């Protein structure tokens, strides 16, 4: 509590915090939040936003430590039940019940107490690297003795807000020591956990109930920034992998028909993985006059209103299944003749003609001697 004239009052701080959470700016303590017209919000970054589903059913039994859970069968495992060590935060020791506003102390306490620490920080247990089932354990931020708040959101606890209305096991469990007395949420020390940064606040210090150990859940899935990068990268020329987990290749997916060489489908423990090499790439070649297409052409846009010829690259120079699209980008009845090399064919003929305004054709090569319309 600040002395008059030396800082914000508790009332002003409380009103500002409430309006912020309600999505409004605080321009006057005399205004109700619904009277404020300027919007506000909590600022976040994509590298600290959960991008994958959080499971609803998880265990609170300490015998299940270091178990990872997924939201449903076939989904990624996104949470892990782990141990934490708890340390006091320097400079947070005081007597919260000194002086009073009625029954509430100047420090916010309402229980008889001595001076002690009120702020605590969580860090992953020292055994995390050897005990965890996380495939990236030992790699920051998933490392033994990692202080949660020092990761700036890369390592977060899963809040009970992500759990179900009943049977919610995401509430962190505090203990005086490993194997010691549990400190329940209803305990008179009145503690509050910040699940984002792993900071614990205790309103009323009690020397007999100082937490030093906890168990709870951390998020191990992808953050939004990674998911966005993965999605944008899937069309940039790298391989695309399609995985159908839990399907039996002999029943649910008995066959695969693909156009193109290098496409593979493998089965491991009834999990089917389809790999399409090369990803997707894009490019537009302008045809303002007759030309011979190159191996790298993907879309050829005809911009001329005069008749012209586009000669396709030899089919054997393209990968089987490689495609090319030829499109008249003009509103004209000019003739665009598409021809092949030598005796090669397009659906059995050596040439086709685009005549109508804005006509187009999609072709793919068999990788040896012919093109086909699709």
Structural features:
single chain, 4 domains, 6-stranded mixed sheet, 8-stranded antiparallel sheet, 374 residues, elongated
Short description:
By secondary structure, this protein is mainly beta.
Task: Give an account of the 3D structure.
The chain is mostly beta strands and 374 residues long. It folds into four domains: 1-43, no CATH class; 45-219, no CATH class; 246-276, no CATH class; 284-373, Jelly Rolls (Sandwich). It has three helices and 23 strands. The strands form five sheets. Strands 1, 2, 5, 6, 7, 8, 9 and 10 form an eight-stranded antiparallel β-sheet that branches. It has a six-stranded mixed β-sheet with strand order 14-16-18-22-23-20, with no helix packed on it. Strand 6 (173-175) and strand 7 form a beta hairpin. It is elongated and about 95 Å long. The model has no long low-confidence stretch (mean pLDDT 87).
Annotate the secondary structure layout.
Blueprint (H helix, E strand, L loop, with lengths): L9 H12 L46 E3 L6 E12 L4 E2 L21 E2 L1 E6 L3 H4 L41 E3 L6 E2 L7 E4 L4 E4 L10 E7 L4 H10 L6 E5 L19 E5 L2 E6 L7 E4 L3 E2 L6 E4 L5 E4 L11 E6 L7 E4 L5 E2 L4 E4 L5 E6 L4 E4 L1
Parallel strand pairs: 14-16, 15-17, 16-18, 17-19, 20-23
Antiparallel strand pairs: 1-2, 2-5, 2-10, 3-4, 5-9, 6-7, 6-10, 8-9, 11-13, 12-13, 18-22, 19-21, 22-23
């Amino acid at each position: 509590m600040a002395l008059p004239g030396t800082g914000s009052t508790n009332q002003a701080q409380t009103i500002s915090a409430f309006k912020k959470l309600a999505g409004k700016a605080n321009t006057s303590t005399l205004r109700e939040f619904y009277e404020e017209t300027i919007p506000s919000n909590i600022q976040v970054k994509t590298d600290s936003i959960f991008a994958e589903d959080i499971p609803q059913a998880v265990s609170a039994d300490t015998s299940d430590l270091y178990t990872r859970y997924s939201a449903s069968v076939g989904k990624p495992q996104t949470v892990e039940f782990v141990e934490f060590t708890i340390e006091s935060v320097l400079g947070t020791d005081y007597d919260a019940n000194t002086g009073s506003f009625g029954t509430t102390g100047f420090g916010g306490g309402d229980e008889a107490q001595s001076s002690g620490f009120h702020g605590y920080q969580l860090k992953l247990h020292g055994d995390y690297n050897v005990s965890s089932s996380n495939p990236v354990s030992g790699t920051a931020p998933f490392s033994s003795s990692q202080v949660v708040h020092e990761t700036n959101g890369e390592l977060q606890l899963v809040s009970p807000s992500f759990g179900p209305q009943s049977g919610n096991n995401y509430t962190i469990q505090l203990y005086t020591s490993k194997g010691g007395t549990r400190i329940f949420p209803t305990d008179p020390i009145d503690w509050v956990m910040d699940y984002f940064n792993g900071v614990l606040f205790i309103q009323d210090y009690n020397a007999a109930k100082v937490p030093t150990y906890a168990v709870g859940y951390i998020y191990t899935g992808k953050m939004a920034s990674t998911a966005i990068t993965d999605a944008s990268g899937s069309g940039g020329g790298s391989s695309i992998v399609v995985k159908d987990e839990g399907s039996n290749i002999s029943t649910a997916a008995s066959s695969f028909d693909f156009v193109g060489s290098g496409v593979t489908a493998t089965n491991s423990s009834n999990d089917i993985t389809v790999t399409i090499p090369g990803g997707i790439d894009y490019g537009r070649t302008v045809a303002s006059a007759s030309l011979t297409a190159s191996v790298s052409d993907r879309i050829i846009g005809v911009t001329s209103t005069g008749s012209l010829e586009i000669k396709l690259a030899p089919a054997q120079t393209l990968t089987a299944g490689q495609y090319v699209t030829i499109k008249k980008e003009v509103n004209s009845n000019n003739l665009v003749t598409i021809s092949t090399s030598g005796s090669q064919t397009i659906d059995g003929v050596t040439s086709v003609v685009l005549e109508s305004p804005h006509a187009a054709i999609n072709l793919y090569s068999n990788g040896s001697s012919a093109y086909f319309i699709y």
